[in-house]
Amino acid sequence: MTMLDGLSILNSLPLAALEVGKHWYWEIGNLKLHGQVFLASWFVIVLLVIASLAAKPKQGQMVPGGMQNFMEYVLEFLRDLAKNQLGEKHYRQWLPFIGTLFLFIFVSNWSGALIPWKLITIPEGELAAPTNDINTTVALALLTSLAYFYAGLSKKGLGYFANYIQPIPILLPIKILEDFTKPLSLSFRLFGNILADELVVGVLVFLVPLLVPLPLMALGLFTSAIQALVFATLAGAYIHEAIESEEEEEHG
């Protein structure tokens, strides 16, 4: 078989169904919104709201039920995650933010592997995990940047920016660059891993539809959970870094 024959066979496969970069736009005035990202994000949000409501104890219930036990375990996990990054003093203030980040990313990532989005047709493009779109991951990364700026400014006011010239002023350009690289690394790491996982599984499902993709799908679920943990952990670390500088000045 020649290389041309191999290319002809590949072209005959339905790989063209794997589209990257096509979007279904909602036009509101002069704005263009990515409709499929909004739909998938709302789906994830609804799932989280339903899980929260299902975990609410019923009136007169003395012993926690199954869903309540599960959500209490999740809350304990998130509490430990925030406490490990921010310490006993500050973790309660930032637990809602870090916990929401983790849960949204985790459910979004898993939705891409467990929900057959491709069975739902839309006018343009296709539905996928919200974190499969760079706009979502950049938005989450920018929220994290705003959070750690807020943490530093709320503690030190404008004196927070004195950090940029400590211990020596020559570090100013490096520290400014660091503020740009943090959201870039957060967003592209998450986006790249989720997109690559979905593309690899999608190609294998077309080429070998039985059994072979299953181990990769299981691995994808594991790496998706790790990506959510890494994102939330780094968000907590960045916030702690902004707060810690103030504490060092107070106790130095």
TrEMBL record:
Entries under PROSITE patterns matching the protein: ATPASE_A
GO-annotated cellular components: plasma membrane-derived thylakoid membrane; proton-transporting ATP synthase complex
Source superkingdom: Bacteria
GO molecular-function terms, A-Z: proton-transporting ATP synthase activity, rotational mechanism
Coiled coil: none
Keywords annotated in UniProt: ATP synthesis, CF(0), Hydrogen ion transport, Ion transport, Membrane, Thylakoid, Transmembrane, Transmembrane helix, Transport
Location of the protein in the cell: Cell membrane; Cellular thylakoid membrane; Membrane
Record-linked Pfam families: ATP-synt_A
Topological relation to the membrane, as annotated: Multi-pass membrane protein
InterPro entries registered for this protein in UniProt: ATP_syn_F0_a_bact/chloroplast, ATP_synth_F0_asu, ATP_synth_F0_asu_AS, F0_ATP_A_sf
First-listed, main subcellular location of the protein, grouped into a coarse class: membrane
Transmembrane segments annotated in the record for this chain: 33-55, 94-114, 134-153, 190-212
Family to which the UniProt record says this protein belongs: Belongs to the ATPase A chain family.
Cited function: Key component of the proton channel; it plays a direct role in the translocation of protons across the membrane.
Protein name: ATP synthase subunit a
Organism: Aphanothece sacrum FPU1
High-level lineage: Bacteria, Bacillati, Cyanobacteriota, Cyanophyceae, Oscillatoriophycideae
Gene from which this protein is expressed: atpB
